[in-house]
Design brief:
Helix content is 71%, strand content 0%. The protein is an all-alpha fold. The chain has one domain.
């Protein structure tokens, strides 16, 4: 076996294992980088969505307060369930 290794015919199995492990480590590092990028994008999206929801909530509250203070706004009666309104195609 040593003669074959010396002649270069047989490779050391440890060397091939080292190369395989290096490739595996490189692949895992790449996957980790991609995961971190995806996580950062999702966190930014979540932050944006929450801020938009908060702004919409504030606008709804402002409009409700404005509607209550005006006094010239009437609430519409609730629609009857089970019947279609006039002019409906359903």
């Amino acid at each position: 076996m040593k003669e074959a290794q010396a002649a270069g015919v047989v490779r050391d199995p440890r060397a091939s294992q080292i190369e395989r492990l290096k490739a595996q480590v490189a692949e895992l590092k790449e996957r980790l980088t991609e995961r971190d990028t995806d996580l950062a994008e999702l966190t930014a999206f979540k932050t944006l969505a929450i801020s938009r929801l908060a702004a919409q909530h504030e606008e709804i509250e402002r409009l409700r307060g404005q509607a209550e203070s005006n006094g010239n706004i009437r609430r519409l009666p609730a629609a009857c369930s089970g019947t279609a309104p006039y002019g409906s195609c359903s």
